[in-house]
Amino acid sequence: MNKVDTFQFWEDIYLKDDAGWDLNGVTPIFDSLLDELNPGKVCIIGCGRGYDAVLFAQKGFEVTAVDFAPSAINSVNSLAKKTGVIVHTIQDDIFSLTPEYANTFDFIIEQTCFCAIHPTRRNEYGKLVKSILKPGGKLIGLWFPLDKKIDEGGPPWGTTIEDVKSIFNSGWSIEKEEFPSLSITPRKGREKLIVFKKIID
Length: 201
Ligand SMILES: C[S@@+](CC[C@H](N)C(=O)[O-])C[C@H]1O[C@@H](n2cnc3c(N)ncnc32)[C@H](O)[C@@H]1O
Fold this sequence. Notes:
The chain is α/β, with parallel strands linked by helices and 201 residues long. It has a single domain, classed as Rossmann fold. It has six helices and seven strands; from the N terminus they run H-H-E-H-E-H-E-E-H-E-H-E-E. A seven-stranded mixed beta sheet has the order 3-2-1-4-5-7-6. Helix 5 links the parallel strand 4 and strand 5. The structure holds S-adenosylmethionine. The site of S-adenosylmethionine has 20 residues, from loops.
C-alpha cells in the first residue's frame, strides 16, 4: 500500500499543523452553490476539518463527513458541536463506504480528496462515488491541480480535465463546468468546478 493511502500519513500532517490545503473556513464556491441545491443527503469525502460539512448542515442538509485522519474527524465533531448542528462523522477509509452506503447520497462534495489519493486508485475512486450516489445524485467537484503533471509526484497529484472526464465517462452527464470566479487566489485557474450527475449504475 502507498503511504498516502494510510491514515497515519495524513494524521502526521495534522499533528505537525502543516495542513497547507486548509482554508480555515468554508469554501466560497460551495457556499455560493448552496442556493441552487435542494437540501438532501450529502457526503463530504476526505472532509478535513469540516468547515463545509458544518455549512451544509446549517443549510438543512443531512451531512455525512468522512475522513480517516482522527485529527480531522475530531475537528469536525468539535466544530459541529460548537455550531450546534448535526454532522454524522465516519472516521474510516472512503473506500470502505461501499457496499454499506450504496445508493445513499444525493450529493458528494469533492475538494482535494481526489488529488490526495494515489493516482493508481482513480478508477476505484470513480466506482466508489458512483456506488454511493443515488441515481440522479450529483458529484460536485473542484478538480485540482490542473497545472501539475502526474509524474511530478504528489500529493497533490496533478490531473487534467480529460483525465477527470475519462473517469466519469459512462453513466454520467455533466451538469455544470466552469472555472469559478470564487476560487481562492492561489487556486485560480488551477481548479475547475465540474458537477457530474449519475444517470445509471
Ligand atoms: C488534502 S486534504 C483535503 C481536506 C479537505 N477536503 C479540505 O479541502 O480541507 C485530504 C484529506 O483527505 C483525507 N484522506 C485521504 N485519503 C483518504 C481515504 N482513502 N479515506 C479517507 N480520507 C482520506 C486526508 O486525511 C485529508 O484529511
